[in-house]
Amino acid sequence: MTGIERTDVLVVGSGFGGAIAAYHLAAGGAKVVVLERGPWLNGEDFDQDYKLGSSYTRAFDFVVGDGMSILGGNCVGGGSVVYFAAMPRAPRFVFERHGSIGRRMWPSAVSRDTLEPWYDRVAESIPITQQTWTDVPYAGGLWAAACNHAGRTANPVPAAIDTTKCVNCNWMMAGCRFDAKKSLLFTYLPAALAHGAEIRPLHEVQKIERNHDGSYRVHYDLMDEEDYRLRSDGGAIDAKIIVLAAGAGATPVILQRSEPTLGTMPHAVGRYFSGNGERLNTAILNEDKVREVLGLERGDGLAYEANQIGKGPVVANWDRLDGSLPEYERFSLEQLYFPPGLGTILAQVPGAQGPSWFGVDKKEMLKRWRSWLIIFQMTEDDNEGVFGPPPAKGNADRLSQQMLGVGRLRYDPTPNTLRGWALADAECKDILERDGLAEVAAWTNDVVGAYTVHPLASCRIGDDPATSALDDRHELRGHPGIFVTDGSAVPGALTVNPAMTISALAERAIPAIVQAAQDRGVDVTYGAPAPDGSTNGRRGVADLLPALTRR
Amino acid sequence: MRTPEEELRTMTLEAFADTIVPGEKRSPGDRSVAGASTGGGAVQAGAIELLEWDATGLTEGLDGFSSALDAHATNYAAERGVTLDDSVPPFVALDFAQRTELVRILTTPGHPEKALWVSLALFSNMAFDSAAHMHTVDALAAGHPGLLALGIEKPGPDGLWRFPEFSYGRELADLHPDTTPSGSPA
Ligand SMILES: Cc1cc2nc3c(=O)[nH]c(=O)nc-3n(C[C@H](O)[C@H](O)[C@H](O)COP(=O)(O)OP(=O)(O)OC[C@H]3O[C@@H](n4cnc5c(N)ncnc54)[C@H](O)[C@@H]3O)c2cc1C
């Protein structure tokens, strides 16, 4: 067929996985096209507004599944535009986890030590600030003080935030109006563009087909920029290499839908999904006790009443990130701001007699909203999520003009996961209900199931073909030339925020992708510096390259 | 102008929204708002305006929602021997405790229609906690009952929020001993 566009490398999705691949491949000399289903928003588009149709809904995708719902980014820059920018590295024990398969689930080639130089590459490419106590807003300070009062430690979390620009408006989930959040819009993506990569917003990839010459044809629809229920005919692009980075809630769906045109998928595509063990608790603070017990004052006579002020999660408790504890008993507890909408309806009234998430008592609880403290638990779940057959288009049947859709993920938490959640809930209560500081209740799972902003592992790397869709170089088993570099490649829950690890794995995947492109006749080399030209990270990984490009 | 059918539909949907976030009666004769709480609830916050905006994706289904809810209310009343005042739609004729119990049944995991009633509840709540049918700045200026109840601060003169005062400004806990120089868990 003639008239079909051609490129060397086609990247699906422009979040962490996609942006990192697009940058390195373009900088190495390949012709790169990025297809992104969401709009391209910048600066002034990031309005502080809860109205449907503002960036608060345009930049998001919320997919309700059976037992698990996923919130993700839907714009150029993906999750980096809407995330809270906490960027910790995963603790050492995570890489030794066994999870549901009874033996080490990570590939033997990946450990904290072998990933460290790739983490360093990311840290050189995305400015990450180690926040100090003076950067910590009231909510984080309160969490730290409560931990301290309970004999625990607490850490300000490293974040991709320029604290000199941050105004602590806590609207960062709708995109940062003040350019303080160092999203991919400021790092890998402009560098990719500078090297000639093309980014096409409002292009939603539906399926992939294999051509006779071993290249691939990617089919997309064009999306309306306001009402994502509306789409028009798109087209197709041929590429020698495909990098799938649509996120862990979408990448497996594209592959499932492509099965008739690509051939059989590895068993693990769309299986072993992990919600990063997430669970949220809301504490309603007693302001007097905060003053008396913790000795905290804002300076204006208030002890706290500052839920709205700040910058996402800033302080975490890592006492239970202890590798000597049994698996499923390790977790972190991070202070978090979650804005109205889901963050209020899913919060339950502590000790409710009547209904816990709606009704009279809930309304009374809403009136105390300024005194809420939200704690985000990241536990070790059991990779129990499974995707059913894909919807006709996209990754969900869309309900609202933006954001809300119904997907095919089924998640039925195992006793291991439930026990981990219960332990984390108990720890939260122990810290925050001490001496009457607060009343605490976990968010309900009865409304939209469990809930994650950290979807992982739906297409994971591993050494065992039966339980991993990708080999340890991120190539899709049985489909040479298709690579997956997003959160779906991460084998399991991380007990901390995942973006840093997703990014490090994406950096680590690049040498093999470059090699595969070269093998297919693309004139491309590996070895670009960080987007700002720094070269320390590149030096740090030099010794690792031969092992990564071997076949 | 609403047709008589639309009036009835609106009453039923209002009664549902009021069960999610209850408010005080708008007038002594208000039937759909049960008056279970002081201050405005979801209805006063604009639940019907939000639901009738097609951006929510629920608008076309609203007739179905209200007739299904009324049918559930009729069954509920029959099962419990409750006599319904037939001058108002059946769900509106239930008292607040009965409305609450019925909504709880409909939204309990395992109920075949759970997803529908949860979506109606989500938007009812959203009208109150985020005024999702209005620009936030306008909603606050207009005294939106939900945003005011939550205590959302007013923005600055340029319509943007900034909080120059934001931190206790002092060390409040010891760091975890196994923290790397870059601030990550070891
Ligand atoms: C509110 C929120 C707060 C968060 N806070 C943090 C945090 O503080 N720290 C942290 O580490 N992580 C955080 N996360 C999680 C983090 O954002 C994700 O883990 C990360 O973005 C995942 O990267 P990814 O490359 O897998 O996918 P994404 O970043 O989700 O990128 C996938 C991209 O693919 C696009 N896409 C999907 N389907 C298609 C298709 N069919 N065709 C074309 N494009 C498609 C999407 O629109 C999206 O842009 C947060 C997430 C959310 C939602």
TrEMBL record, chain A:
Coiled coil: none annotated. Residues 451-506 form the Glucose-methanol-choline oxidoreductase C-terminal domain. The keyword Metal-binding does not apply. Residues 8-42 form the FAD dependent oxidoreductase domain. Residues 67-271 form the Glucose-methanol-choline oxidoreductase N-terminal domain. Transmembrane segments: none annotated. One of its GO terms (molecular function) is flavin adenine dinucleotide binding. Pfam families: DAO, GMC_oxred_C, GMC_oxred_N. Keywords: FAD, Flavoprotein, Oxidoreductase. It comes from the Bacteria. InterPro entries: FAD-dep_OxRdtase, FAD/NAD-bd_sf, GMC_OxRdtase_N, GMC_OxRtase_C. Belongs to the GMC oxidoreductase family. This is Choline dehydrogenase-like flavoprotein. It comes from Sphaerisporangium rubeum.
TrEMBL record, chain B:
InterPro entries: DUF5987. It holds the Pfam family DUF5987. This is Gluconate 2-dehydrogenase subunit 3 family protein. It comes from Sphaerisporangium rubeum. The lineage of its organism: Bacteria, Bacillati, Actinomycetota, Actinomycetes, Streptosporangiales.
